[in-house]
C-alpha cells in the first residue's frame, strides 16, 4: 500500500530537526518531520503519494554528511493495520455490527401465529445477576459483584504464626461451624484478594519466605505472635499511582508467574472505551479530526472523507491570518457513515500526517426556544426560520435574479424620465416593456461579468463553491465601497464585481469560514428599502484566461432590429463553429528538406504541452524505399492555449538555416462533407424558428407576447393556447422568420421575468410541413388507438363464454 510518508534510517546522530526537514524539502513541500537522533531514524511526510515516491527514488542510498541513508516508503507500525491491537479492534467492530444486525432482526415471539416459548436464560447476563441478587433472601449475604469472591471474617480465617518455622510464614486456618463442615470444591478454590502498594521487585524464582519477608517489616520477627492481626495485611490508602494486585489461595499460596498477565486482561476496559466512542459518534454523526497538515484545505478534507457517505459540513478553523489551526470538524448526514469513516481513517496517513479522529461534540446553535418563538408574530417567525435555513438552501432557480424596482430605477435614470412616466398605469403594455428593460440590464450584466473573467456556463452546475457569494436585490444607488465594507467585517475581501447597473454583485472572500459567516449573517438583511438575497456562487466561477471572443454572445448590442438588412446567406446560417479556431494543432512550413521528424521533435519538446511533431514526406521516385521531405509538417499540443503560446514564441525560429513559418492548422473539409453540412443546416433551419414559452403568467395576452418578442426580429405567428373557459394554459408559441432571429431572442430572454415569473424558453419541435405525411401520421395514431381498445375489450374482463360459428359452446 502506497503511503505519503517515507522512512529514513542511517542518519547522522548530530543531525537536528531543522536540518532534517530542510534536507528533504528540496523536491516537494514537507508536511511533517519526525526525527529520532538516538536511533538515527526519522519520518518525513509529503502532501501526495507521488511526492513520497519521488523522494524515495531521489534520496535513497544518498549521503547526509558522511552517513549513507536508506529511504523507503513508511510501512504500518506495530500499532497499525497489521498489529494485534488493530486485529482486536476489527473483531470488536465486527462484533458490534453483528450485534446491531441481531438486534434489528424480528423477534419470533412477536410474530403472529407463533406460540410463545420459554427460552433458556443467559446466566452471564448482568441484568439477570442483578435481579437475582436483589431478590435473594435476607439471610443470604449479598456479594460485592459478579466476580468478587466473599471476604472471610476474622473469626473464620486468622493468620497464625507457624511454631515450626521461625521465618514467620503466614497461613490461613479455616474454622468452620460444627455440623456444617463441607469440603470445598476443587474447581472453585477460595481466594482472598489484597491490594498492596509500593511493592519492591522480587525475582520469580524466590521462595514464599523471601516473598513474604520483602513485604513485611524487619521488626516483625521480634514481635509477639499474638500481636499480629489481620489488619497488618489489609490494604492501606493508596499513595502512589502504581498498584499491584496479589491473590492468595488457601490451597496454593505460591506466587503466580507474572508473565501470565497480558494485554488480554485489559480488553474489557478498551472495549468499553471503544463502545463509548462509537456511541458518541452514533449520537452526533460528527468527527473531530486533528494532526492535519497546515496546507490542507476544506476541499481536500471533503474529497478524503466523502467516499464514506454524504457530508453536511466540513469546518476547518483558521486564525486571524487565514492559516489553518491543524484540526477540523466533519459533519456527516448519518451516523453509519461517520462510524465507517472513523473506523477506516483513524491513524491513517493524510498528506504525510497520521490522522487522529475523535468523536466531535454536537454543533452549538443559537436556537430560540419553541415557547419564545411561538409568542412572536407570524411574520417574525417566518423571517427567523428563513434566515436559519439560508445557509443550507440554494436559490438555483435563477442566479441572475434582479429586483424589478431597481431595474426600473436604472432605466428611468438612463432615459431621463421618472418611474411614473415609465410605468404608465393607463397603458396595457407596461408588463412587456419592463421585461424588455430587464433583458437589456441582464445582457449588460452578462457582458460585464464575462469581461472580468466570470464563466457564465458555470451557473448551470449544481455544485457550489465556498468563497464566492452572489448578492441579489441590491437597492438602487448602493456603491461598491459600501458593499465591500459590509463584507469586510467578516474577513478579507479579494474582489467585488458590480455591473454598471448595480442590481447584482459577486463578492469573493479569502477563506471559506469567512464566507460562511458572512452568508449566515447578511442573508435576508434589510438594506435601505430592500432585502438582500444571497446565494452561494457555483464552483470554478472564474476563468484564468478571458477571451474577447466569449463576449460575442453576451454583448448587449447583439439585438437584431427589424430594420436591419439581412442577406440571403444569413437566413440559413447557423453560426457553425469552425474547427480550426479551436484546434491545438499547428502548421509548420518552410522547413529545410534535411529536417526530419526527430529533429523537429527535439526542437519543440521543451515547450509546455507538446505532444508530437511530424514532417510530411513522400516516396522518393529515384530511390525506392526512401522518402523525401515535403517542406512542411504539423505540431500537436495538449490545449489550444499552449498551441497559441508556441505559435507566438517559435514563429520565425531559425532551424537548419530556414526560418519557420507557423500558423494555426485548419482542418480541410471535402465537397461531400460541405454538401452534407449544408443539407443539415437547411434541415435544422426549419426546426429552430419556433420557440415555446413556458411558465407564462395566466394574465398574459397575445399582445404582450408579440410585443416582447418583436424587439428581436420579425414574427411569423404568435399563438397562446387557451382553455375552454377562455383562460390561458400557461405557455405560448412564437415563430420567427429566420433561425438567427429565433436564436437571438432565445439567448436574450433566457433570464427575463414577465409579471414576476421567469420565462422558460426552448425550441419547439417542428411539425411535418407535408399535408400527406401529416394525414398518414394521424391515421396511424387513430388506428393504433382503435386496436388497443379492441384488444382491451377482449382480454380486459378475463375468461368469458362465447358461441362459435358452428353453434358449439366453448369455455
Can you tell me about this structure?
Belongs to the RRM MRD1 family. Residues 4-76, 285-362, 467-539, 584-667, 689-766 form the RRM domain. This is Multiple RNA-binding domain-containing protein 1. One of its GO terms (biological process) is rRNA processing. The chain has 22 helices and 36 strands. It has 811 residues and is of the alpha+beta class. Among the domains are: 5-73, Alpha-Beta Plaits (2-Layer Sandwich); 268-359, RRM (RNA recognition motif) domain (Alpha-Beta Plaits), CATH 3.30.70; 398-557, RRM (RNA recognition motif) domain (Alpha-Beta Plaits, 2-Layer Sandwich), CATH 3.30.70; 579-665, 2-Layer Sandwich (Alpha-Beta Plaits), CATH 3.30.70.330; 673-763, Alpha-Beta Plaits (2-Layer Sandwich), CATH 3.30.70; 771-811, no CATH class. The strands form 13 sheets. A four-stranded antiparallel β-sheet has the order 2-3-1-6, covered by helices on one side. It has a four-stranded antiparallel β-sheet with strand order 12-13-11-16. The longest helix is centred in the last third of the chain and has 25 residues, at 771-795. The relative contact order is 0.05.
What are the main properties of this structure?
extended, disordered C terminus, RNA-binding, 22 helices, four-stranded antiparallel sheet, Alpha-Beta Plaits, alpha+beta, repeat, 811 residues, Mrd1_RRM3
Amino acid at each position: 500500500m502506497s503511503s505519503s510518508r517515507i522512512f529514513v534510517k542511517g542518519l547522522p546522530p548530530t543531525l537536528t530537526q531543522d536540518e532534517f526537514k530542510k534536507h528533504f524539502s528540496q523536491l516537494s513541500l514537507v508536511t511533517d518531520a519526525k526525527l529520532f537522533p538516538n536511533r538515527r531514524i526519522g519520518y518525513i511526510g509529503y502532501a501526495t503519494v507521488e511526492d513520497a515516491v519521488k523522494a524515495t527514488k531521489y534520496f535513497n542510498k544518498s549521503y547526509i554528511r558522511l552517513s549513507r541513508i536508506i529511504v523507503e516508503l513508511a510501512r504500518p507500525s506495530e500499532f497499525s493495520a497489521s498489529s494485534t491491537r488493530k486485529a482486536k479492534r476489527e473483531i470488536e467492530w465486527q462484533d458490534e455490527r453483528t450485534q446491531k444486525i441481531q438486534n434489528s432482526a424480528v423477534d419470533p415471539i412477536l410474530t403472529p401465529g407463533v406460540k410463545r416459548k420459554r427460552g433458556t436464560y443467559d446466566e452471564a447476563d448482568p441484568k439477570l445477576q442483578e435481579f437475582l441478587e436483589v431478590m435473594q433472601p435476607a439471610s443470604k449475604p449479598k456479594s460485592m459483584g459478579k466476580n468478587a469472591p466473599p471476604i472471610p471474617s476474622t473469626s473464620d480465617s486468622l493468620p497464625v504464626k507457624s511454631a515450626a518455622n521461625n521465618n514467620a510464614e503466614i497461613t490461613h486456618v479455616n474454622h468452620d461451624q460444627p455440623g456444617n463442615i463441607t469440603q470445598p470444591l476443587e474447581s472453585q478454590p477460595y481466594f482472598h484478594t489484597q491490594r498492596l502498594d509500593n511493592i519492591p521487585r522480587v525475582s520469580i524464582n524466590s521462595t514464599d519466605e523471601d516473598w513474604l519477608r520483602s513485604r513485611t517489616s524487619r521488626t516483625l520477627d521480634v514481635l509477639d505472635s499474638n500481636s499480629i492481626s489481620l489488619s497488618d495485611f489489609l490494604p492501606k490508602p493508596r499513595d502512589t499511582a502504581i498498584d499491584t494486585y496479589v491473590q492468595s489461595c488457601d490451597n496454593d499460596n505460591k506466587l503466580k508467574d507474572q508473565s501470565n498477565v497480558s494485554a488480554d486482561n485489559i480488553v474489557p476496559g478498551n472495549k468499553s472505551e471503544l463502545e463509548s466512542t462509537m456511541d458518541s459518534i452514533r449520537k452526533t454523526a460528527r468527527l473531530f479530526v486533528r494532526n492535519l497538515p497546515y496546507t490542507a484545505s476544506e476541499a481536500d478534507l471533503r474529497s478524503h472523507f466523502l467516499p464514506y457517505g454524504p457530508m453536511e459540513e466540513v469546518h476547518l478553523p483558521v486564525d486571524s491570518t487565514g492559516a489553518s489551526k491543524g484540526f477540523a470538524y466533519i459533519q456527516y448526514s448519518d451516523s453509519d457513515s461517520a462510524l465507517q469513516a472513523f473506523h477506516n481513517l483513524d491513524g491513517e496517513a493524510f498528506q504525510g500526517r497520521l490522522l487522529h479522529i475523535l468523536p466531535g461534540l454536537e454543533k452549538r446553535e443559537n436556537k430560540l426556544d419553541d415557547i419564545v418563538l411561538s409568542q412572536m408574530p407570524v411574520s417574525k417567525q417566518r423571517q427567523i426560520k428563513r434566515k436559519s435555513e439560508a445557509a443550507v438552501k440554494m436559490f438555483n432557480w435563477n442566479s441572475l435574479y434582479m429586483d424589478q424596482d431597481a431595474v426600473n430605477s436604472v432605466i428611468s435614470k438612463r432615459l431621463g424620465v421618472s418611474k411614473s412616466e415609465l410605468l404608465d398605469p393607463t397603458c396595457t403594455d407596461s408588463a412587456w416593456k419592463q421585461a424588455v428593460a430587464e433583458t437589456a440590464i441582464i445582457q449588460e450584466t452578462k457582458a460585464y461579468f464575462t469581461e472580468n473573467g466570470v464563466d457564465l456556463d458555470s451557473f448551470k452546475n449544481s455544485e457550489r463553491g465556498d468563497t464566492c457569494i452572489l448578492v441579489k436585490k441590491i437597492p438602487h444607488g448602493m456603491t461598491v465601497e459600501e458593499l465591500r465594507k459590509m463584507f469586510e467585517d467578516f474577513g478579507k475581501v479579494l474582489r467585488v464585481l458590480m455591473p454598471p447597473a448595480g442590481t447584482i454583485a459577486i463578492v469573493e472572500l479569502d477563506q471559506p469560514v469567512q464566507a460562511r459567516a458572512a452568508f449566515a449573517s447578511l442573508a435576508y438583511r434589510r438594506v435601505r428599502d430592500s432585502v438582500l438575497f444571497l446565494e452561494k456562487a457555483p464552483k470554478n466561477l472564474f476563468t484564468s484566461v478571458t477571451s474577447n471572443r466569449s463576449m460575442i454572445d453576451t454583448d448587449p448590442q447583439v439585438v437584431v432590429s427589424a430594420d436591419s438588412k439581412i442577406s440571403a446567406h444569413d437566413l440559413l446560417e447557423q453560426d457553425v463553429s469552425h474547427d480550426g479556431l479551436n484546434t491545438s494543432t499547428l502548421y509548420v512550413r518552410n522547413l529545410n528538406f534535411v529536417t526530419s521528424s526527430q529533429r523537429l521533435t527535439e526542437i519543440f519538446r521543451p515547450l509546455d504541452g507538446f505532444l508530437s511533431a511530424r514532417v510530411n514526406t513522400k516516396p522518393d521516385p529515384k530511390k525506392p524505399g526512401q522518402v523525401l521531405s515535403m517542406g512542411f509538417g504539423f505540431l500537436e499540443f495538449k490545449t489550444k492555449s499552449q498551441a497559441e503560446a508556441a505559435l507566438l514564441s517559435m514563429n520565425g525560429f531559425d532551424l537548419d538555416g530556414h526560418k519557420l513559418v507557423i500558423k494555426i492548422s485548419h482542418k480541410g473539409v471535402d465537397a461531400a462533407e460541405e454538401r452534407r453540412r449544408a443539407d443539415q443546416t437547411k434541415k435544422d433551419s426549419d426546426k429552430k424558428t419556433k420557440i415555446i414559452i413556458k411558465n407564462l403568467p395566466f394574465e398574459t395576452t397575445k399582445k404582450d407576447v408579440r410585443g416582447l418578442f418583436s424587439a428581436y426580429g420579425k414574427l411569423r405567428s404568435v399563438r397562446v393556447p387557451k382553455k375552454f373557459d377562455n383562460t390561458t394554459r400557461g405557455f405560448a408559441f412564437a415563430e420567427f422568420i429566420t433561425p438567427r432571429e429565433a436564436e437571438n431572442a432565445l439567448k436574450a430572454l433566457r433570464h427575463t421575468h414577465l409579471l414576476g415569473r421567469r420565462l422558460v424558453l426552448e425550441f419547439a419541435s417542428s411539425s411535418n410541413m407535408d399535408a400527406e405525411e401529416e394525414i398518414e401520421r394521424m391515421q396511424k395514431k387513430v388506428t393504433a388507438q382503435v386496436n388497443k381498445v379492441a384488444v382491451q375489450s377482449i382480454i380486459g374482463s378475463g375468461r368469458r363464454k362465447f358461441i362459435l360459428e358452428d353453434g358449439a359452446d366453448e369455455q
